[in-house]
Amino acid sequence: MSRTLFEKIWDSHVVVQQDDGPSLLYVDRHLVHEVTSPQAFDGLRMNKRIVRRTDLTFATMDHNVPTTDRSLPIVDQISSRQIQVLEKNCKDFGIELFDIHSPNQGIVHVIGPELGITLPGTTIVCGDSHTSTHGAFGSLAFGIGTSDVEHVLATQCVWMEKPTTFEIKVEGKRKNPHAITAKDIILSIIRQIGTAGGTGTIIEYRGGTISDLTMEQRMTICNMSIEAGARAGLVAPDEKTFEFLRGKKYVPKNYDELVNYWRENLKSDAGAHFDKSFTLYADKISPQVSWGTNPAMTTDVTGTVPFPEEYSKGNVDEEKAALKALQYMGLKPGTQITDISLDRVFIGSCTNSRLEDLIEASKLIKGKKISSKVRAMVVPGSQLVKRQAEQLGLDKIFKDAGFEWRESGCSMCLGMNPDILASGERCASTSNRNFEGRQGAGGRTHLVSPIMAAAAALAGHFVDVRELDLN
Amino acid sequence: MKGSVIKYEKDDIDTDVILPGPYLKIHDYKELAKHAMEGLDKDFHSKVKEGDFIVAGRNFGCGSSREHAPIALSYSGLKAVLALSFARIFYRNAVDGAFLLPIEIDENSYKDISEGDNLEIDTAKNEIKNLTKSKTYPMKPFPELIGKIVAAGGLFNYKP
After folding, report:
1. How far apart, in whole angstroms, are the C-alpha atoms of residue A190 and residue A229?
2. End-to-end CA distance of chain A
3. What's the pLDDT tens digit per position in A407-453?
4. Which helix (DSSP H) or strand (DSSP E) does residue B73 occupy?
5. Mean pLDDT (whole number) for B9-15
6. Beta bridge partners of A170
7. Phi, psi values for residue A316, rounded to 5°
8. What is the pLDDT of residues A384-396, one digit of tens each?
9. Strand duo A157-160 + A23-26: pairing
10. pLDDT at A10 over 90
11. What are the CA-CA distances from residue A51 to residues A55, A84, A124 (Å)?
12. Chains A–B, number of C-beta pairs less than 8 Å apart
């Protein structure tokens, strides 16, 4: 019987299959960070349990680490304490930790792939919803809560109800791939299928446009699968995937053998059945900017802030939600998106903080100055990304233009460390969530691509990046 | 299970408003509870009473995997969230730690239940009595295993 890629990975990881209800799945890689793990380790201690597979468990600190000079002590005592707790837990339980001073420290979803911890065909869990990022490599990767983190630490398994399958085809050649980015593709998808459009499903992204994307761009797309409510996103691995991972620190020694196996097996069979299907034509989309308080509240850069009654198409609840979102965002319906002025720009997060994102943004920034009204910040996704960018001289380009060049971490994506918006401040952000208060209480977030963020930093407002010289 | 309703007529109530990011550093559950729903309703902590229920729209708990969200609600005294639908990770976290019951209700019940109504939830019969309005609503039954985990008091107390 023909099977989808997801079903193949699922079948090869089921430990206990029940007739009805969840199955017990084996976990190949468990990524741990400082925020969702302390109670899990407490639980292990309380019940005198050990970590079952320390060799498959990797930890880093990313969510609340400061992005300022790391030779200085951490000012926030509570953050400092949470970081020390992770250090102690990793030491006590024998888990490899990429701590704040490690050359491998970074956002957990950036370092997994760059260290070769992420591998095709594996199952990967982490106490973080954006674990879906790793699906770009053809791994079944999903976020779990702290109870499940404890369960995985103790058993290397997780209970899971078998999700349904959702095929999202992206077809069509983009006229200007520097202007219409992977971020614009995923925002367009979420805008159309909605924040719950993928609930209970594993999305497999397919089609010519997806094949054309680099690994970093595929990660951007899979990363935001959770914003459509999906459990995970997947892209079938191909030669780009195999080359990306080749030679990385943690890939197994029999890499070529594995590649042969992956090449043969890790794809959906012809005629495999998907429970749902959706097609996006990438040649028809424009650069995207979110205007509201969830990622589906997004429109074209050439568009206007919608009128709630038009946006809702007669749905009273949606109309109320749009009205409330506009109040929070301080926007008037009918305003041109390109007339929205910005106070802050953030280039970073597990969605868009990789080397390619920084290169793209820097090409536009080079030799220019950001608007005097804007405070702009680049937070590389990892120490490796930061080093590579500095070797290319990107730090200098950004700093000369007026950007702050920071240490790696989650930073202003979720407002846990001092990098936050003040109430009422408006930010063009390459992150993944524009929820109320996400980047700081009262802060207003517009989700955009790195190139749009860079253009907005220069102009002080959004611009149609297709009109700029990006080559 | 009896309690009164705090109603939010809103879809997509996300984990960042249920428990804003800055509080994820807090280890003490009672302290977390003081910030429950702070991103949406600053008065929640002062008005919630032991045994209360939240009634809300679609996709409740979307966003982050932070278990702090159901924990903060639970330690506020909340016993259940009745919503049109739930985001998966929130649903699962609520059940795993037996923090609160995520109960799916239908559109009619959602419209009919008002702020302050007294409800009685009977998970054995899969029904919700509105004691204030003398009405009965259906609830979506828990899948068998979820029901067993809930009955056992969470994932770690459940013995297959």
Report:
1. 9
2. 47
3. 999 999 999 999 999 999 999 999 999 999 999 999 999 999 999 99
4. helix B68-75
5. 96
6. A280
7. -60, -40
8. 999 999 999 999 9
9. antiparallel
10. yes
11. 10, 19, 16
12. 139
Q: Supply A451's token pair.
A: 């190139």
CA B87 – CA B58 distance, rounded (Å): 9
Determine contact, residues B130/B114, Cβ cutoff 8 Å.
no
> Residue A46 — φ and ψ, nearest 5°?
-60, -35
Q: Does B61 touch chain A (CB under 8 A)?
A: no
A145 to B92: CB separation less than 8 angstroms, yes or no: yes
Q: What is the pLDDT of residue A105?
A: 98
Question: What is the DSSP annotation of A70-113?
Answer: TTSPPS-HHHHHHHHHHHHHHHHHT-EEE-TT-TT-B-HHHHHH
A364 CB near a chain B CB, below 8 Å? no
Q: Which residues pair with A143 in a beta bridge?
A: A126
Q: State residue A166 phi and psi, 5-degree precision.
A: -135, 115
Torsion, Cα of A421, A425, A429, A432 (10° steps): 70
| A316 vs B: CB within 8 A | no
Closest CA to A51 of A93, A83, A111: A93
* DSSP element (H, E) containing A169: strand A164-171
Q: How many angstroms separate the CA of residue B128 from the nearest CA in chain A?
A: 23
In angstroms, the CA A464 to CA A302 distance is 7
Could you report the per-residue pLDDT of A124-155, keeping only the tens digit for each? 999 999 999 999 999 999 999 999 999 999 99
Contact assessment for residue A207 and residue A101, using Cβ atoms and an 8 Å cutoff: no
Cα–chain-centroid distance for residue A171? 22
> Does residue A153 sit in helix, strand or coil?
helix
Does A6 score more than 90 pLDDT? yes
Residues 6+ apart with CB under 8 A from A319: A308, A309, A311, A312
As for the ipTM of the complex, it is 0.95
| Rounded-to-integer distance, Cα B99 and Cα B72, Å | 9
- Alpha carbon A172 to chain centroid distance? 24
What are the percentages of helix, strand and coil residues in chain A, rounded to 5?
40, 20, 45
B16 touches chain A (CB under 8 A): yes
| A304, amino acid identity | T
Tell me the CA end-to-end span of chain B in Å, nearest whole number.
Answer: 26
| Residue B27 CA: distances (Å) to CA of A37, A147, A333, B92, B109 | 11, 15, 42, 21, 36
Is a pLDDT exceeding 80 seen at residue B107? yes
Residue B150: the pLDDT is: 85
For tokens 């639980």, what's the residue?
A43
